[in-house]
Amino acid sequence: MMGIMKSKSSQAGAPRAALSRKEATHERIVEVASRAIRRSGYAGTGVADIMKEAGLTHGGFYAHFASRDALLAEAADRAGAEAVRTSAQIAAAAGPGRSLQALMQAYLSQQHVEAVEFGCPVSALGSEMHRQAPEVRHAATRHIKEMIDLVARQLPGWGTPEAHREAMVMVSTMIGALMMARAVDDPKLSDALRDAALRHFSEVEQPAK
Q1: Domains, the chain, ranges and CATH?
Q2: What is the C-alpha separation between 104 and 68, in angstroms, rounded?
């Protein structure tokens, strides 16, 4: 999945009208959790720590969520939705024939490497996802499909099986390259991994817009 980190001030998403106090508190908990899972992983994200970071007491958790997995599912959904929204904005803002390269360059940027907390949830959590509860995996799966479709729409032959397969390869390569770039302790190798992925797909033709 492709997601490009945003500033803390923009992470809350679009303004919501007339939220009740309980709704606003619920939103704050989910927002904190969406950052925490990317920063610390699913296993490293505890309810008590999330509530503390949100400025709330642990005891108030069950007024909002039936279980920790219910919170993690909402947090995964929030993180994935942010990734889809930001990537779509990058594609829309790019010039004709530039949307695909703009997406890839943003995803494989040094800024994204360093800002795990605000970036792509799949590259941050991919190795843990298969161990999560069904509702958590379902939220992640839905947004992975959306991101594959977003990339496919930038390719020649959009709507064909070939374009969909190419999009799956591109998304998988980008996620893998970013994960490896974060994993290594050699800055030059980290840069080379990202550059290799960008160069590999630099010749992909895009439809005229």
Answers
A1: 72-200 (1.10.357.10)
A2: 34
